[in-house]
User: What shape does this take?
Amino acid sequence: MEVIIRTNADAAAELVARIIAAELRANPHLVLGLATGRTMEAVYRILVRMHREETLDFSLCSTFNLDEYVGLLPDDAHSYRHYMSEHLFKHLNIEARNTHLPNGMASDLDAECRNYEHSIAKFGGIDLQLLGIGRAGHIGFNEPLSALRSRTRAKALSPMTLSQNASLFGGPEKVPRRAITMGVGTILECRRCVLLATGAEKADIIAKAVEGPITSMISATALQWHLRCTVVVDEEAARQLRGAEYYRWIFANEPEWAEFR
Ligand code: F6R
Assistant: This one.
């Protein structure tokens, strides 16, 4: 795992967008794993700008989102399909048929989850998975005690997640109780992971995810196992990292990061 600390949230999002752009330019057929949530909005704004101003081309790219609520129609304003379309897809030259999210309206959710895994495999696996982190440490909707080898499945959302997303739905009782999510095991198979966390409210969980022991109570700790995981944070989210100075030294000295400094 590597940790990169940027001065503020905009600079952190900019770095993540540049990592994605570099991967896409190197491989136009990139299979990109996407996340939703407030943190990602800045990344998607920058990718849209890069598409418009720097001709970043998504025409051959395919995407797989981490998760979708159970019981919401794709055009429901709260669905993640709608979020992705509004924040990213409709602004890019990406083929709609190459954008994938689990279908939370499927009559057979288990079959839908199996099919989602098959589709990822059919596309050759995910090259780069973008991740956020919930305040209880979930990646995707892998809530506390998610098995570290779990695959795509429907999961009940934790009270913490319901309260975290309540304002978006106009109250915790309106947040769907379940979601389909890629599993921790699915995420660990992605060839590269980039996790973005910004703001003081993420400082505690980032310290636990990066420096704490691996535990299924905090699914993000499983990323310590990943062979190529980059965690990008702003100063506020980095505040409780004991090794911050060491991480800065690595970033300043690893040749891989020269073009991003
Ligand atoms: C959503 C997802 C979640 C979010 C996390 C952080 O697709 O995968 O794990 O990334 O809940 O959400 P925000 O950015 O709103 O704090």
